[in-house]
Amino acid sequence: MRSALLGLAVFVATAAAADVAGTWKGSAETPNGTIERTFVFKVNGDQLTGETSSQRTGTSAITDGKIDGDDLSFTVNVRIQDNDLKLQYKGHVTGTEMRLRVELPDGGTGFEYTAKKIS
User: Is 76 exposed, middle or buried (0-12, 13-18, 19+ CB in 10 A)?
Assistant: First the structure.
């Protein structure tokens, strides 16, 4: 009985999680202009991996990713003007739209992406 309840709880938690796997295109308004970024997410249970790319920073791996229901978080390491930066993303998924907040490593003002699932 206990294992059946545990199995049901895992099924419900998995069924309730957002459908994040796939390709998402997003943009963010920054003091330096609009940044467009593509995210390709892979999901394994509550673990989130994949890669992201933009014209400004090229392609970077998505690491330390986690999904909790409709919420997600992950890290992206980028190189900007000879500086290596570790960007922390946190977001929320509603259907085929995702809102992500990226925090800059120096504690400066972050910015927000709005992304749509394209595949």
Answer: buried
